[in-house]
Amino acid sequence: MIVLLNNAYLLISGALQVYSILLVIYILMSWVPSTRETKFGQILGKLTEPYLGFFRKFIPPLGMIDISPIAAIFALQLIGRGIGQIYLILFRALV
User: Fold this and answer.
1) Tally of domains in the chain
2) What DSSP string describes 32-52?
């Protein structure tokens, strides 16, 4: 049971880290508009825009500056830490 819990935690935390990196890459690509037109940019857009769009509903851009990605990454980090705390609680209960 402990091995299953550990593997699940590693999988989820790894996926959150990879998604955070994809978000940062997509945000950096927005500084060079032609990069979003590439195949890689389109794939990243399909993966990240639904998540970023959720935050854009609540945090509108300030002129030309869109700060919703900051909130999106912050929320992702909070989710990761919350999952880490749940993992520790469950691990201590099983040991």
Assistant:
1) 1
2) SGGGGGSHHHHHHHHHHHHHH
